[in-house]
Write a structure and sequence with these properties.
heterodimer; A: alpha/beta; 8-stranded mixed β-sheet; 4-stranded antiparallel β-sheet; 12 helices; 12 strands; about 25% strand; globular; B: alpha/beta; Rossmann fold; 2 domains; about 20% strand
């Protein structure tokens, strides 16, 4: 097994939110004690609904935001302090891709110039070498130099996301955080970008944290998957196994909620209640008010993430150890 | 049986650029029809045009009949009876469809007064019944709340309540769950199908999500570049798609179980409406395209009972699919 590249231990992050102009501010626990290990060359999928803290986790992992508690180690070393030369060198090795490519690109600059920018910032090679690298990157994302001369407005959504991908790869990073990279794209274009991402990952041996609400896309890309609910990881395991045999009641509901062609919705688990509000997290297990199987203990005691055999870990009082698994 | 709605040769052009190029569609009473296709394929425009909701500069031609009565070019007074009354519509972004400065009661009662001629206590009782129907907890108290006090899923429930306020024969749901989380999407879809059954209402579900459409509709029409390219009962379409575009859409969807396979992406992008290729609009992206494809746009032709496809390579495409299956 390859050594870990990214080690996240017990990170937490909360924000102060004020309701109304004079309201008292309340703490919103966006991420609460999340630990993850991503090995070199591994693709870890992070799924969850809006407000589950998956994007905040991604930002903390990249060092775009400091955690309140906990630590992120990259390649065995703790993250350098922001703004220092060491931080800059580390940041060149990790990049991010966002959902909205148009928002991530400068509309008034030809896209080739934007792909080149990280090379200029990190002082990679001579001017001529940088030009070569831009052409090489455009080819890698299956675009032509003619595309590079265009402005973002003259490209389609899928092409823009390819440009963002090319720019992220410019500094030859080891680690990419992709936050909903294909969610804004149509199905057929989504498939093109997913295939491209898989190819590039295999060619370059990239390590990926792939954040998405789309279970299908996550399963297609990832080796392992972590499911988040209200700032905590509730289940983690290998992608095929997790979606085939979800253990946590929330993962079960998520998998069952994913519509599939050729299957009628009979037997679907439809969760009662509203989407969770991070500002008013329930006591005990955050999922218990919506959980069809909740017991008294769930309302008082936070379940810890524990191994249930194999590489699966689940945070649920009802799923603890192999006995329960066989009994169920 | 006469269909509830029949659309024939519906075409729409914005500033001389055709976006809808001859749509034929019929919908029976109480039927659930799905409309899938990528952005810009004309799914929404079809129904906006049918209900006369497009801006004035849009040029609309063809025919849209509701119970045999022509809607295109009908006087505004007649359309007002149809819109919200016999045909209701809900949209992707429910929050922007409600007035933020009026209470839910005001907005529900407005719809009821307009389409049901209710007044006084009857209208209030009906508003309460509707809110209960769509599963808003504590409906009596929540009637005096404003839209921002509800969550996204609840706002969509309120939109559904307003839409069914006029006891419509047809509900057009345009991407009703796209902005919602997966578990909330499941709730809303279940609500829609329950209400449809109880009110024996026809439903048009517009979505880019094939899974959503497959599970909730009897029949599915696939649109591409302003035309319907295939129409079939949902189970048949997903088991055995014939049009290369429909095949591509289904192949591009990552599976949730079974072995992982490389996705079959459709190459290229949707054509620009202002520079439509001659002949079949899908030909430039089609792996099966032959010379005659560029000559004329193929008409929708029946290939089996209840199934129509607009592709002159339909036979070849079916063989190609069977070939893959046989391997």
């Amino acid at each position: 097994m390859s050594p870990p590249l990214v080690e996240v231990s017990a990170i937490s992050r909360s924000y102060a939110m004020r309701s109304g102009m004079f309201g008292r501010s309340t703490a919103v626990h966006a991420v609460d004690g999340v630990s993850l290990t991503i090995r070199k060359g591994e693709i870890l999928g992070l799924v969850g609904e809006s407000g589950s803290g998956k994007s905040t986790t991604g930002r903390i992992v990249l060092g775009l935001e400091p955690p309140d508690r906990g630590e992120v180690r990259f390649d065995g070393k703790p993250m350098a302090a922001p703004g220092t030369a060491a931080w800059r060198a580390q940041r060149a090795r990790m990049q991010m891709i966002f959902q909205d490519p148009l928002g991530a690109l400068d509309r008034r600059l030809p896209v080739a110039a934007q792909i080149r920018e990280p090379l200029d910032i990190h002082g990679v090679g001579t001017i001529a070498e940088r030009e070569d690298r831009v052409r090489e990157l455009l080819r890698a994302v299956e675009l032509t130099p003619a595309h590079g001369a265009r402005y973002p407005g003259a490209l389609s959504g899928g092409q823009r996301q390819r440009i963002v991908l090319a720019r992220a790869l410019a500094t030859k990073p080891d680690f990419l955080v992709c936050d909903e990279p294909v969610s804004a794209l149509d199905v057929s274009i989504q498939a093109q970008v997913v295939n491209l991402l898989c190819d590039l990952q295999a060619q370059l041996g990239l390590t990926l944290l792939f954040i998405s609400h789309d279970l299908r896309v996550v399963r297609q890309i990832s080796n392992n998957v972590a499911v988040m609910y209200l700032g905590r990881i509730v289940e983690i395991g290998s992608a095929d196994d997790l979606f085939a045999r979800p253990e946590h009641p929330y993962t079960q509901a998520l998998v069952s909620a994913s519509p599939a062609p050729g299957r009628r919705s009979a037997g679907r688990i439809v969760l009662a209640g509203d989407p969770p509000n991070p500002a008013a997290r329930p006591q005990g297990c955050a999922f218990h008010p919506r959980c069809p199987r909740a017991i008294a203990r769930c309302a008082s005691e936070v379940p810890a993430l524990s191994s249930v055999g194999g590489d699966r870990q689940v945070a649920c009082h009802l799923v603890s150890g192999a006995e329960t698994r066989e009994a169920a | 049986m006469t269909p509830l709605v029949s659309i024939e040769g519906l075409s729409v052009a914005f500033n001389g650029v055709p976006v809808l190029r001859g749509v034929d569609l019929a919908l029976g009473k109480g039927e659930a029809l799905g409309l899938v296709g990528e952005s810009g394929s004309g799914k929404s425009v079809t129904w906006l045009a049918a209900l006369g909701l497009l801006p004035r500069h849009a040029k609309v031609s063809g025919s849209v009949r509701l119970d045999g009565r022509e809607l295109l070019g009908a006087p505004a007074s007649e359309l007002d009876q149809v819109r919200g009354g016999r045909v209701a519509m809900i949209f992707q972004d429910p929050a922007s469809a409600l007035n933020p400065v009026l209470t839910i009661r005001k907005q529900l009662c407005e719809a009821l007064a307009l389409h049901r001629n209710l007044s006084g206590e009857a209208i209030k009782a009906e508003a309460l019944r509707l809110l209960n129907l769509v599963g808003i907890p504590d409906a009596g108290r929540r009637l005096s709340a404003y839209p921002h006090e509800f969550s996204g899923g609840q706002v969509q429930r309120i939109m559904i309540a307003m839409a069914v306020a006029g006891n419509p024969d047809l509900l057009i749901a345009d991407e009703p769950t796209t902005a919602l989380d997966a578990t909330i999407q499941a709730q809303i879809l279940e609500l829609l199908s329950t209400i449809r059954r109880e009110m024996s209402m026809a439903l048009v579900l517009i979505s880019h999500d094939l899974g959503v459409v497959a599970e909730n509709c009897d029949r599915v029409a696939v649109m591409y570049a302003g035309r319907i390219v295939e129409q079939a009962p949902s189970n048949q379409l997903f088991a055995d798609p014939v049009h290369p575009y429909a095949q591509g859409l289904i192949g591009a969807l990552p599976p949730l179980d079974g072995p992982r396979r490389r996705l079959t992406a459709i190459p290229g992008t949707v054509p620009d409406p202002a520079h439509m290729p001659s002949g079949c609009a899908f030909a430039p992206r089609c792996t099966l395209a032959a010379e005659p494809c560029a000559l004329a746009a193929p008409p929708l032709a029946p290939i089996a009972e209840d199934r129509v496809v607009a592709c002159i390579r339909a036979e070849a495409s079916r063989h190609a699919l069977l070939g893959i299956a046989a391997e």
